[in-house]
Design goal:
Distance between the termini: 38 Å
Oligomer: single chain
CATH superfamily: Alpha/Beta hydrolase fold, catalytic domain
Helix content: 25-40%
Low-confidence stretches: 1-48
Order of helices and strands: HHEEEEHHEHEHEHHEHEEEEEH
Strand order of the largest sheet: 1-2-3-5-4-6-7-8-11-10-9
Strand content: 15-25%
Radius of gyration: 19 Å
Largest sheet: 11 strands, mixed
Structural class: alpha/beta
Number of helices: 10
Shape: globular
Mean pLDDT: 86
C-alpha cells in the first residue's frame, strides 16, 4: 500500500512540474519547487526551460531526481522518448546535464530527460553503489536499482512517454549502474549508453570494485550473464542493444572494462534468445570508422557490431588521449571534456537507428 501511495505522490509531483513549465518563468519560480536554469546556449533560438526537482520513495529508498521537459516540437507528433541519465561520482543532475549537454539534445530531439540523483548520505562521493549485491539481484527490492526502475515507471506513466523509446545512459559509477539496469530490466529499456562503466556483477565488495576499476573484472561473461538473466526473472525476449564508450587514457576506470561490458551482453543475449548458454548469439564486427584528431575533436574509433540476423546492435567508441571524462561536453564542469567526438550525439544516433 505504501508503494502505491509513493507512486501517487510521485505522479502528483510530475504533474505539478508540468504545470510549472506551462506557467510564465516568474510564476514557475514562485511555485515552491526548486528550479534552476539550464544552459541551452547551443540552441539559442529555443526558449529557456528549467529543470524541476523532486523526491521519490520506493521500497524504503528515498532519493531526489530532476526532470527536464523542453517545449514540445509541434512538428513531431505522438508520445515523446524518455532519456534517463545516471551521473558519475562527485556529480549531480545539474553538473551531469552540463557535462553531457543532454538537455540541449532533448530540446533538439523532442525528448524528456530524467536525472535520478544519488545523495551524499547514500555515498560520500555521490557514487551509485553499483557493486552492492542488492543492486545485482532480483530480490533487491530495497536497492537503488529497484528505486531507479520504479522512478522511471512512475515518471514515464505520468508524462505519457513513449514506452518503446526509454533509453538509459550513465557515466562512471552511473555507467556501471546503467549496465545493471539494462541487465535486470530488459523490458524497460530500448537500449543503453555506457561511458567509462563496468561490467555487470564485476564486483561485490569495495576491494573488488577497486580492482575492477584498475584492471577489469575476473568474473567470466557466462557467469555475469547467468546472474543478470536470473535478476531479470529468467525471461527470454528481445536482444539488448548497447553503446559503450571509453577514453583510452582513463586513469580511473581502465579501458579493459569497455570490451568486457560487450562480452557480458554478448553472453546475456545468448541467454535471452532461447534461455540457454549454447553459443547461439555472438557479435560480428560490421566495420570500424577511425577518425584522426582534427577540428577540435580527439582521434577516435567507432566500431559497429551486430548479432545473428542483424540483431542486438552494439557500438564501441574509443577516444584517444581522453581521461576520465565525457567526450564532447562542457569543460566548465568536472569529468567533462570539451573536445569531440560528441558522445551524446553518437549515442542518440545509435538509439535512433534501432
Amino acid at each position: 500500500m505504501s508503494q502505491i501511495w509513493d507512486r501517487i505522490l510521485s505522479a502528483a509531483a510530475v504533474l505539478a512540474a508540468m504545470n510549472a513549465f506551462s506557467a510564465p518563468p516568474a510564476e514557475a519560480a514562485r511555485g515552491g519547487r526548486s528550479l534552476s536554469s539550464v544552459d541551452i546556449s547551443r540552441v539559442p533560438s529555443a526558449p529557456p526551460a528549467p529543470m524541476s526537482h523532486a523526491e521519490f520513495s520506493h521500497g524504503g529508498v528515498k532519493r531526489p531526481y530532476a526532470l527536464f521537459m523542453p517545449p514540445r516540437t509541434s512538428s513531431v507528433p505522438g508520445p515523446r522518448p524518455l532519456l534517463v541519465l545516471l551521473h558519475g561520482c562527485d556529480q549531480d543532475a545539474e553538473t551531469f546535464a552540463k557535462a553531457t549537454r543532454m538537455n540541449e539534445l532533448a530540446i533538439r530531439e523532442n525528448a524528456f530527460a530524467l536525472y535520478p540523483e544519488q545523495p551524499a548520505g547514500a555515498n560520500p562521493r555521490k557514487c551509485w553503489n553499483w557493486s552492492d549485491p542488492v543492486n545485482q539481484e532480483r530480490d533487491g527490492g530495497a536497492g537503488e536499482r529497484a528505486w531507479i526502475a520504479a522512478l522511471i515507471d512512475s515518471v514515464a506513466g505520468a508524462l505519457k512517454a513513449d514506452r518503446a523509446r526509454i533509453f538509459i545512459v550513465g557515466f562512471s559509477a552511473g555507467g556501471a549502474m546503467a549496465v545493471n539496469m539494462l541487465s535486470c530490466h530488459p523490458d524497460l529499456f530500448a537500449a543503453a549508453g555506457v561511458f567509462a562503466g563496468a561490467p555487470f556483477a564485476a564486483a561485490a565488495t569495495p576491494e573488488e570494485s577497486r580492482k575492477t576499476m584498475r584492471s577489469g573484472t575476473s568474473v567470466a561473461p557466462r557467469d555475469s550473464a547467468a546472474k543478470a538473466f536470473a535478476c531479470a526473472g529468467g525471461r527470454t525476449g528481445k536482444p539488448l542493444p548497447i553503446f559503450v564508450a571509453h577514453g583510452d587514457a582513463d586513469g580511473v576506470i581502465d579501458k579493459t572494462n569497455a570490451r568486457q561490458i560487450l562480452k557480458h551482453f554478448e553472453a546475456l543475449n545468448d541467454l535471452h534468445d532461447d534461455g540457454k548458454a549454447n553459443g547461439s548469439f555472438a557479435y560480428s564486427t560490421m566495420g570500424t570508422k577511425t577518425s584522426k584528431a582534427r577540428r577540435g575533436a580527439r582521434a577516435h574509433s567507432l566500431e559497429a557490431l551486430l548479432g545473428p540476423e542483424r540483431s542486438a546492435a552494439a557500438r564501441l567508441l574509443r577516444v584517444k588521449k581522453l581521461g576520465h571524462a565525457w567526450s564532447g561536453g562542457d569543460p566548465s564542469v568536472p569529468h567533462s571534456d570539451g573536445k569531440g567526438p560528441a558522445a551524446s550525439d553518437l549515442m542518440w544516433d545509435f538509439f535512433s537507428s534501432l
